[in-house]
Specification:
The protein has about 300 residues and is of the alpha/beta class. Helix content is about 45%, strand content about 15%. It has 11 helices and 8 strands. It has an 8-stranded parallel β-sheet with strand order 7-6-5-4-3-2-1-8. Helix 5 links the parallel strand 4 and strand 5. It starts with a strand and ends in a 9-residue tail after the last helix.
Length: about 300
């Protein structure tokens, strides 16, 4: 299994092109393209600007033997009409095209909710709204050969911004399956965020087999069950994610993707002098977990 890192560890600190080589030197062999923090760096609708940004990154990845395993698409309130939401939402298509240029197989996007009690009728309307949005992206996905991996969020996020909803749709695997199956397209799958699941009191051993072959991408991160911390595994001890059996759960799901970290906050305060050592440590953790968390391989 490839071990990948999101380039969001570079934000406001390191040059992405140089970081690709540093990640390879630390033992990573996969990359997660981070659109979330790059939406205003260039005009993603301008193909020449996109080419100027992506070409050196692709050359660096090729030179380092690194593969783009997934990407994180824009983040926005799906049902919002504010300027920032409209702008980020409008960039989904250009970002899908950019993924196609790099050969990124899956771009992660969030489902969403809107105000209401999350009773039967409201839940159905939310489901239908999500289906309509993701379906609108499929023609471009087919052209670029890029899939959309719908991420599990967490209920607390239903109270973020203008959402005002007591639940967050698709925060549990059964709802992810419902949404993915309703879309019924080979370029629609699931992304499982281990930290988001922890905030829901869910563990991978019971959830990943439910997703099964729908599972296409991972966001591996740790928290204490209270806040979405995006830390490295094991930092929270017994309060964190139960990592023993994680590899076996992935195997039961038939997962064929990468072990992809989304742990930017774990690196925010790391001094430059220890940054590469911390990258190597992250690789060692990933190797331990993907070997079963007990030193025994699960294939």
């Amino acid at each position: 299994m490839r071990i990948a890192m999101s380039l969001n560890i570079c934000v406001n600190r390191f040059d992405e092109e140089q970081m690709i080589g540093r990640l390879a030197a630390a033992g990573f062999d996969g990359l997660d393209f981070n659109f979330c923090d790059l939406l205003t760096r260039i005009d993603w609708r301008d193909t020449r600007e996109v080419e100027r940004l992506l070409r050196p990154w692709q050359c660096a990845a090729d030179a380092a033997g690194m593969t783009w395993v997934q990407a994180h698409g824009p983040m926005f309130y799906m049902f919002g009409r504010g300027e920032k939401d409209e702008f980020a939402r409008s960039l989904c298509i250009p970002c899908i095209r950019a993924c196609g240029q790099l050969g990124v197989p899956w771009m992660v996007l969030h489902p969403d909710v809107f105000p209401g009690p999350f009773d039967k009728a409201h839940r159905q309307a939310i489901r239908d709204g999500n289906i309509a949005f993701f379906r609108s992206l499929l023609p471009e996905c087919e052209k670029a050969n890029v899939g959309i991996a719908i991420e599990n969020i967490f209920d607390k996020a239903g109270r973020h911004g203008d959402r005002n909803c007591p639940r967050f749709y698709a925060a549990v695997p059964e709802e992810q399956c419902e949404l993915i199956d309703a879309l019924d397209h080979p370029l629609i799958g699931a992304c499982w965020d281990t930290g988001h699941a922890r905030l829901m009191g869910l563990e991978p051993q019971s959830c990943l087999p439910i997703l099964g072959r729908r599972l296409k991408a991972l966001h591996v991160q740790e928290n204490d069950g209270k806040d979405d911390d995006h830390m490295l595994p094991f930092v929270n001890g017994n309060e964190g994610v139960k990592w023993t059996g994680f590899a076996e759960a992935l195997a039961q799901a038939g997962y064929r993707g990468a072990f992809t970290y989304e742990v930017h906050r774990a690196f925010n305060a790391v001094p430059d002098a220890f940054f590469d050592a911390t990258l190597r440590y992250a690789v060692q953790i990933a190797q331990f977990i993907t070997a079963g968390g007990d030193g025994k391989p699960h294939r």
